[in-house]
């Protein structure tokens, strides 16, 4: 079955993890990034790490795993990229679009009657990317969310209720 | 309606959590965790490309997913080949 | 397609997958059998709001918490701390065995060894150095029964009034305020007033974080009635600001002038309730009675411009606030530590009440002067139970001979056993420990080695004295210094009564056995009493209920009569608000007015309110000077430092620090600084900065945010790794003896 083989081959290519702020489109990113580690070195929070072996061909490209250490959008990394894999002109954290926070309302504490404002409180695009409906229910504003993942890292729900979905859409 | 089975390979010890996540995605049924690192899921989709989308989603969103392997595909009627043809045509 | 055919196809698909990895698939998925979950009504262990919780147990283990939908306070809602309480029960920092210090190290010991050591040390110390060389330091988190036993042992049998508790650090100023203004402690109204008020005045309260469920009631009230307004007087913008219509962002420490200015405008513009003033109010300058006219004259100096200048706000805003106050049908004032933890805490409390009294906005639905408390049983156990050095159970004073006689009779001791002079208040007590005057201390359910102000001054003393700590958790900053640590049963492991902010006493249920060898605090104290030779007056205490029944005798006929609230009833109802003099009395929502069972219709003679706790039935409006903070900012220390809380954590982190989810939410300490100050000082987000005061220094991560006012910084004080209290001042209110945690002078620089 040709289509199946093709599908598997495609899948092997398309893991699209969270890249540092200012990353260009995934395919171009892979082409441009020379694995110089400059962004990894400048990141003051060790948010950016070199992709481990499980990333296959994309090993040692810079990635962010928000659950472990999110990006605090300090904007130190975009200017240091020598190849433009990260957009050097990006200085304003409001313009970052790495991904998008998505709330699972089944798990989110306020939607279950538990007062919690952890993601709202810690969001670096404070009072803009996440707001509270009725001062209780967090809501993500897709136009403001940078996808930094701070919300995911602080979510106190037993199972993390707010997660970052990579912005990179392959099947659109 | 297409019915396909997919093996999701995950890092040992993380299968339970990922299975929980998968269960929350629509159109997917889990057939359990096997040998610690394999989750067998069955997807029911209207379009063939949706299978691809599901696979890529699984790859994207979980760092502990090490591989996604579609293993079987069938249709609830006998027009499987026809559909595939149609979709391929559309894609071009 | 039929479902069964689809199921068949799915199964064959799955089987195909299974065969590729070499396993056989079970056709039927077996449902996980979940053992039965049992729910028991109880009350939350955290702040003073008193939310009803349901504790879920599976096979005798606490596995879940949910809000009690029938609770009139929280109606099923919980904050994130309460939601994770079950994790605290099973936390791995629970202490399971007694510890005794041997050769400088804490080692596990038997109860017998630990208790005989404690008893012999206390005996020896008392014999050699007198009764007052020992002390007890309790907690607003202990149950009323536990505080009662401690009080009975130390004040009634050992004979020292060196009995204090951490509420001294928390709401002693509120007690002082209620006592001096109304003649009796604790609020006139209740939380219910929130649901009917038109205006809220929040002073020094970050309600959204410190009392989230109360905040939700404010939000609900505002949402239902968009005309409802919220005024805040606070140096800091907080999450509470989301519902605030008018924020007077003051320079910390000078808000007494604003309260007087509000009163000034209210009087000038005719918003006073002259009939109410005539009927139920008297005036005083703090030393002697003055006339209404004198008070008006006193207010004249407090023009809006004067207060605005002092506090760094707009004069027009003060005028607006006063007009809103005057025009509102019902006003509820809410305040917390920003008012209480102040050098002039009692005075500021008085001024909060002043406004309600001169406008007559008190004693009916939607109008109250309501001090929010920070601990679950500060009101119940310590204020009502008399767990401070000058008090006896049931709103009594040690200095009052009659009171001593009444309590001595219940305790079955000669009245002469109870010393007629107050013992050492908290700061004095720890000063005496530091100086060696107090040689043995028993600390129960609290963590002063982190929570005392100006810590550096006191730590060595705690190290040196013979320190017994009864605690559920180890290590804490205090248990680390102890000579003996006794494992105490936690919240869900003992019966007891908690009394919350609104005079409501609620039963806390025992649902599981104490972990390890832990015992409930009352039992440990009874053991100590027996070993000290006072067993016969304690042997009838077989359970917390026995203690409660004796305590009820102390409340009979008092303003806080709980006679109608035995365990049998408390276990059924969602708490009762005293006075509740009989078993069929529903409890009281407003005191000093019709509906209060103690309201003397005859004396009131038609007056709406009669403050029967005062000899003349009149509440006092005080003309107090507007003194500033103890340590104003200066050139050397130009910033005003406040400490406070975050939603996810509570006090010294012994509980919330054991819940990984809460730690994840706010993992570490930080210092908040305004962007303007940060720019001036060259500080950026996540820099490490050195915060210094005259007492200590601390390196903290910087959080640049427009929350603190320019010229102020803020530090949440929860983390033992970063003891914010090495910075704070131990200067205290001369009336309430409560230290001024909320204002001191600091400087900050890049570390």
Overview of the molecule:
The complex is a heterotrimer of chains A (172), B (92) and C (751). Chain A has helices spanning 2-13, 26-32, 38-42, 118-122, 150-154, and strands at 48-50, 62-64, 99-103, 114-115, 130-133, 137-140, 162-166. Chain A is α+β, with helices and mostly antiparallel strands. Chain A has 2 domains: 17-80, no CATH class; 97-166, Alpha-Beta Plaits. In chain A, the strands form 3 sheets. Chain A has a two-stranded antiparallel ribbon with strand order 1-2. In chain A, a hairpin with a 3-residue loop joins β5 and β6 (137-140). The radius of gyration of chain A is 17 Å and the shape is globular. The model of chain A has no long low-confidence stretch (mean pLDDT 84). Chain B has 92 residues and is an alpha+beta fold. Chain B contains 3 helices and 4 strands. Chain B has a 4-stranded antiparallel sheet, with helices on one face. In chain B, β2 (28-34) and β3 (38-45) form a beta hairpin. The longest helix of chain B is centred in the middle third of the chain and has 14 residues, at 48-61. Chain B is globular. Chain C is of the alpha/beta class and 751 residues long. Chain C has 4 domains: 38-89, Phosphorylase Kinase, domain 1 (2-Layer Sandwich); 99-170 and 377-541, Rossmann fold (3-Layer(aba) Sandwich); 186-372, Dimethylsulfoxide Reductase, domain 2; 639-750, Barwin-like endoglucanases, CATH 2.40.40.20. Chain C is built from 26 helices and 30 strands. In chain C, the strands form 7 sheets. In chain C, strands 6-5-20-19-18-7-8 form a 7-stranded mixed sheet, with helices on both faces. A 6-stranded mixed β-barrel of chain C has the order 25-29-26-28-27-30. Chains in contact: A-B, A-C, B-C. The A-C interface holds A 44-45, 72, 74, 109, 113-118, 121-122, 126, 132, 134-136, 153-158 and C 67, 76-80, 82-84, 208, 212-213, 215-216, 219, 223, 239, 242-243, 646-648, 661-662, 664-666, 685-686, 705.
